[in-house]
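Hey all, quick one. A colleague (J.T.) asked me to put the nicotinamide-adenine-dinucleotide job into the tracker so the inputs and the structure tokens live in one place instead of scattered across chat threads. No bug as far as I know, just bookkeeping. Sequence used:
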Amino acid sequence: SRKIAFIGLGAMGQPMAANILRKGTELVVFDTNPARMEPLRDLGATLAASVAEAAEGAQIVITMLPATPHVEQVILGEGGVADVIAPGGIVMDMSTIAPTGTDRIAAACAARGLVFIDAPVGRLVIHAQRGESLFMVGGENDQAFEAVRPLLDKMGTTIHRCGPTGSGIRTKLVNNFMILSIAQITAEGLTLAAKLGLDIAMLKEVNAGTSGTNGQFQFNFATKVLAGDTTPGFTIDLAHKDLTLALEAANAVRIGLPAGAAAHAVLGQARAGDYAGKDFTALLDYAADLAGVAPIRLEQGA
Ligand code: NAD
């Protein structure tokens, strides 16, 4: 039978793998933190003791890891995925990493007769938990896409084929650049509103009826920080990484992203302290802190 491996079971990877398992597909899983694997045992996953053990003999290997160095290490490092998986195997990286890293890994995979697909994930942890993620897929090999599509269907509701290899990760970076910049603007706007004595629930309604409406205020902030919940979610540390990647990509093509650079600076400062591991909607608490404003919350039912 087919062997499918899933490596990296963090805030996103664990619920993604859980959905594949719950919907009837067997998985071998691996995470360097054994505690992240345990909940999947109950769903029938086979727990591996190393990357090599997970990937050995697999037809498809999925990675969902923090950043570029982790993905390069797991796929191209000694005893990594590329060392043990047979030619023809599919390596699908779903992490958000540097496009230059994606290009290097894809080329190294191609040189070994492997098919590489970049399929980073849109939306939030709660969507991953519900199997409602969105995927941005790079890679024009239709046969490989058809092989991974049933897995994507179990983890999400929406698949975009963005173009050739590397176009998925580039699409993800541009979209996250917009999300995170809008999150910081939202944090600043709500802090200004609080300082001006405005009712936040009223402001939310007004905002929803105008072209200023945005998913950060209306949905993400509303269900996270404005409800008093700053558990991650998507951490300020990883958000800072994504904006760094966007600025690096902009540098490489000689353009500036001045508003994004300002948001990046705020994230860089926030991540130096306790905020690093909090949900990125805690940018609101950070802005309020700096302004000397009490934490800004929406009343229950407001
Ligand atoms: P996370 O830090 O919660 O999870 C990463 C997991 O990888 C951890 O469990 C860690 O133990 C494991 N890991 C690290 N090195 C490893 C290795 N060498 N071998 C095996 N496992 C290893 O991160 P996350 O929030 O799940 O995000 C994963 C990726 O998805 C990141 O690139 C992130 O930017 C992206 N992303 C996150 C969200 C979100 O809302 N959290 C949404 C979309 C995309």
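Adding what we noticed when we looked at it: The chain has 14 helices and nine strands. The chain has a mean pLDDT of 97.
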